[in-house]
Design brief:
Distance between the termini: 22 Å
Number of helices: 0
Helix content: under 10%
Strand content: over 45%
Largest sheet: 4 strands, antiparallel
Strand order of the largest sheet: 1-2-3-4
Structural class: mainly beta
Number of strands: 4
Shape: elongated
């Protein structure tokens, strides 16, 4: 999902804590809730992050998918 100034992160849940490839490289999958102030909608998005689990450093790798749209908060 492209960076969009209208979207604000309002919640995050780790869906899969991490899939280890090594001690310093892993993939993590999170459910992220985003709010679009223009549309007044919440989006539940699955994000894939790459990073170093030992340092808890993660970066978004550009892959995401919208799972759900709602007028109410999804992640409580």
């Amino acid at each position: 999902m492209e960076a969009n100034p209208k979207l604000q992160e309002t919640g995050r849940q780790q869906k899969i804590k991490q899939i280890d490839y090594s001690e310093t490289l892993a993939v993590r999958i999170d459910n992220v809730e985003l709010y679009n102030s223009e549309e007044k909608l919440y989006y539940l998005v699955i994000q894939i992050l790459l990073g170093n689990p030992q340092k808890d450093e993660w970066s978004f790798n550009g892959q995401s998918q919208i799972l759900k749209k709602s007028k109410q908060k999804i992640i409580v």
